[in-house]
Amino acid sequence: MRASQIFIPTLKETPAEAELVSHQLLxxxxxxxxxxxxxxxxxxxxxxxxxxxxRIVREEMDRSGAQEVLMPVVQPAELWQExxxxxxxxxxxxxxxxxxxxxxxxxxxxxxxxxxxxxxEIHSYKQLPVNFxxxxxxxxxEIRPRFGLMRGREFIMKDAYSFHVDxxxxxxxxxxxxxxxxxxxxxxxxxxxxxxxxNGAIGGKRSHEFHVLADSGEDAIVSCDHxxxxxxxxxxxxxxxxAPAEAPLEAARVQTPGIRTVAEQAAMLGISSSQIVKTVxxxxxxxxxxxxxxxxxxxxxxKAAHALEVDEVRMATPEEAESATGAPLGxxxxxxxxxxxxxxxxHRALNVGNFSTGANEMDTHWVNLNWDRDLSCPDSADxxxxxxxxxxxxxxxxxxxxxxxxxVGHVFQLGQVYSERxxxxxLDESGRDATVTMGCYGIGVSRxxxxxxxxxxxxxxxxxxxxxxxxxxxxxxINARKFPEVAAAAQALHxxxxxxxxxxxxxxxxxxxxxxFATMDLIGLPHRVVVSDKVxxxxxxxxxxxxxxxxxxxxxxxxxxxxxxxxxxx
Amino acid sequence: MRASQIFIPTLKETPAEAELVSHQLLxxxxxxxxxxxxxxxxxxxxxxxxxxxxRIVREEMDRSGAQEVLMPVVQPAELWQExxxxxxxxxxxxxxxxxxxxxxxxxxxxxxxxxxxxxxEIHSYKQLPVNFxxxxxxxxxEIRPRFGLMRGREFIMKDAYSFHVDxxxxxxxxxxxxxxxxxxxxxxxxxxxxxxxxNGAIGGKRSHEFHVLADSGEDAIVSCDHxxxxxxxxxxxxxxxxAPAEAPLEAARVQTPGIRTVAEQAAMLGISSSQIVKTVxxxxxxxxxxxxxxxxxxxxxxKAAHALEVDEVRMATPEEAESATGAPLGxxxxxxxxxxxxxxxxHRALNVGNFSTGANEMDTHWVNLNWDRDLSCPDSADxxxxxxxxxxxxxxxxxxxxxxxxxVGHVFQLGQVYSERxxxxxLDESGRDATVTMGCYGIGVSRxxxxxxxxxxxxxxxxxxxxxxxxxxxxxxINARKFPEVAAAAQALHxxxxxxxxxxxxxxxxxxxxxxFATMDLIGLPHRVVVSDKVxxxxxxxxxxxxxxxxxxxxxxxxxxxxxxxxxxx
Lengths: 570, 570
What we know:
9-stranded mixed sheet, YbaK protein, 5-stranded mixed sheet, alpha+beta, Rossmann fold, globular, BirA Bifunctional Protein, domain 2, 3 domains, aminoacyl-trna synthetase (chains A, B), homodimer
């Protein structure tokens, strides 16, 4: 295709609205344009990339035995009321009324719709398992849409929902989907990691997130440097190894006027923060709970909710904390409690000897406390975020590292949450009604485009993976107006490469070579071929891979070899 | 693909909700399922058909030089306020508010969004002409969604918008689109007609609708039996030939007590309704107007609006009619008017001699009036709907026929309506600001699926055109559980046909042959091959084309010939 036949509105300046590199480069390269907050139009070049993502996702879903359907964007409220999410979902669910004042929403996800379909159409275990997927426009009314495609309001998802007669069948499909995702993201040319994730309030047993690794990623993901253990921060754990035994010192109350933080406490007492047991007051359900953590550890609210067996745990307000403990904020501690508040410790907090903690009196802390000797051990659980360097929970030798990731996929065992609420039953082999078991599997199709850019760029622009590039090869015809033989040779090369199966963009614009090169670098095609009167005289082409810094003169056979060498996997 | 791998929930009974054949058969064949009023899920089989329509439409749009983009479904109200359509569009425009209480709508069409894009990105005549298209989900809040996909609320459109520096350029692209639509609907295997259409209130110069011919069509389309003239009923015209001269008779007032209708008037007076000049009172803008038509002709409100140079004409209420004429309803006439009301006649009304009309007095009509002798000729225009048998306006010999059509495409010269309202200008060749000229071009992609069924079915089910069928061939394995050699032979044939490039559905279900045949007929695959122990013994296949009534025994080479003979055009 000639550049004059495709609308590529590149920008010289970086748009002020764009923070993330992917947002900047996709705007600058003319891949997308903003219509309104969180709403983007896919321009011709961007749509070519999006379609490539869609095709790979579709091929791998089909290969896995999933069946493609297409559900409506607009969904009736009744189904969401049945599942209980109409009230629960919050303002990200865009609610609307039709002309008859009936309630609907724009689908951010399709569990309700597919569940309704399943209960109408599936009646026997013989129809199971079945896995339906769609690639479809979704809407989520983000409070602050930002980062371009990364967190837009309207976006494109591949969502799949599987139905099973029992959990064993779900496990098989779950693994099939996990494998399909591995193949999908590999074919997309992305450096990614599958990590264990928490199933949260929705229940279900297992879940994995797929993250594209990028420094700009919003999520912290944890992995072992020795084995294949990987989890997101919500889920990652590390064994609490007992600290080396330390001779118990004499416990004492000390004056610590004005102390409010662990850091201040450590500094005033001349100890490490790891020698402090800090208290964190939370509210679980309706009940206040005192959590104990080592001073240098960070509370993980998700783990606390699991340990306390509630849907959600939140931090207590200062007033709630003082009222629940009868002690002044900054000086609350587990020894000599004035109230009957529930206490739960992180495992690691119980491994600290000679520790300091609040004395439940203004301006007073304990030092050199020891569990059992000075106060009894409370129940304990895993409550902390892991840290880089922590030991791996799976292998005995590795240590954990932390990297940044962009979540692009999620496989999730829903279990019977929806099928119970929406009453999806089938006759099982013995002729009895059985509630079905479900899984769901998402890929952020439009987000993949942004994530790929976050992982593949340099100061000159995007560097598309071979499987995603809008064109495989860019041909730059230099001074084609002045040299008709250059224009003719470039067009002939374009035609031969297209004939050989490559998508080719021929820059036939009447622009300075510098502008032409800058455009090719910005839009990120993997291969560039320059046609000029100079190289024509030598009967060669001037080739440069997008990642290379130098040009190479090649004959056409060599050029073909280089193009073929980086063809995407199928 | 084996039938056990694809979910095809066929129904024996015709769903009560479905009136149209396409709605019935698409539900019964398991192609679609209803989620809510006017909202349908595309099941695996239906989606295969939809994708085929999409692919053909996309290929022909690309071939025509149009560039594919993808715009958001959710559109900001500001743009619709700018174009003036926020107020004007009526309740079919589904309006909604986001979490910040900002107004949006679900796009029923995208003139505003593409106009906004164009004015931001296009600045010079050198960037023109350009034609952007998308294949996208749209929403129209129909008051009574019905007929399944034919008039749903959520539907899939191909919409294209072209931009030009002048009208001459628009004419070229308009013709290119017209030709692309001819190719598209031909490739889709549909019997269709392109007809001239009215541009309506929106202005612009030319417009054509593309109709699939089907007895169930909502629209009347008019065509000549001799030349290629064709138009929709709103637009179609016919020359008003002068009636043979008749000797003028003596005019008289006659008593016609209780007469209200043309038919009653003709009966009481013993004349033909073609000898009556009837009055129709309408309101054009704010003004009442008296229209005159031959008694047997039907008013065309669109033509009246054009003739009166207003956006819209409506019928006057009885009160408005009597107050505007000072005469009693049923007895209003153009002679001896009591008020200064504007009068406009259809051309044909002026060709009637010795006519009867109301006398502007209760229970009184004139008979034997003649223009010029008894009252002066008013202005005249084309105001009537044509009728079958009318002479063709283009050729001298043909007569017009009327058929029913389903509108599936529309090409439309928008002119400068949107570009003026939304201020889309470019620098022209002489460096001056020029308002761009626009065209728009739609295809009802999901409606095509229903229209194809309306045109291709019999009492047993759908008969898909080769280009739209979800599978090219259906193989029915008879008693495959009992005869493993049948199962094996059917599977091997399936594999060979797939290898040869056909999409094959193998019915490997454990069902009676009658059920298997009924399913194949219902879902409408063009070719059926039966594999049974009997035919295996003869070393042949039992073949039947969907439209045929008899089976034929064929060897495999003959089978291939038959399959290849009906492959779709590319």
